[in-house]
Design a protein that fits this description.
The protein is built from seven helices and six strands. By secondary structure, the protein is α/β, with parallel strands linked by helices. Strands 1-4-3-2-5-6 form a six-stranded mixed beta sheet. The longest helix is centred in the last third of the chain and has 24 residues, at about 155-180.
Length: about 190
């Protein structure tokens, strides 16, 4: 129990993604756009964080069927926007958390790191990207192919990445509950 690959779930008709660009990111704006901030919300950033100290300039937040895309100006604005979420979900949260620390900000609490969580539910097959993580959770995501134009990711691409992160996050949390791994993630693995 818990260490093998997830069984594929029967296919269900997935709602088409409805996304829009937002100029502001208050709690009210995000709720009005259709996000339930108390549930896991997928996060996609552009440019993808690596070793650069520069903050991302675009942020997408999503859940199944809904996403928003925002322009972000600096680490503080990103931190403030993500602070509206109870459970932000990212494939790899470590670069984000390092960026916050380097900018003199607090770590973001409540983050669900899919990469770390994927290791907990299946330590023999660690996912390399969001698509692999989805497969390990028995999901099939409709993600566009990575963009050749790395300088400006299309908003729809970011929206689909955010939606996919949320869907994998929801499945991962269900698996934590099923395999009694929630406390291990929250107390030990997640904070690392």
């Amino acid at each position: 129990k818990g260490k093998g690959a997830a069984k594929a779930k029967p296919a269900k008709k997935k709602a088409d993604l409805k996304w829009k660009a937002l100029a502001a990111a208050s709690t009210a704006d995000l709720r009005k756009a259709g996000l339930d901030l108390a549930k896991p919300v997928g996060v996609a950033l552009h440019p993808v964080l690596g070793g650069s100290p520069e903050a991302p300039t675009k942020l997408a937040l999503g859940q199944e069927g809904v996403a928003v895309v925002l322009n972000i100006k600096g680490w503080s604005a990103l931190h403030e926007t993500l602070g509206h979420l109870k459970r932000p979900v990212l494939f790899d949260s470590k670069p984000l958390q390092r960026g916050f620390l380097a900018a003199g900000l607090d770590l973001m609490p409540g983050v669900l790191d899919i990469n770390v969580g994927g290791y907990l539910v299946n330590s023999t097959r660690i996912p390399r990207d969001l698509s692999e993580a989805a497969i390990l959770m028995g999901l099939t995501l409709d993600l566009p192919a990575p963009q050749e134009d790395l300088f400006e990711a299309p908003d729809e691409f970011l929206a689909k990445q955010a939606e996919g992160s949320a869907m994998v996050g929801v499945a991962l949390e269900a698996r934590f509950k099923e395999d009694d791994l929630g406390k291990l993630y929250e107390d030990l693995e997640g904070p690392l």
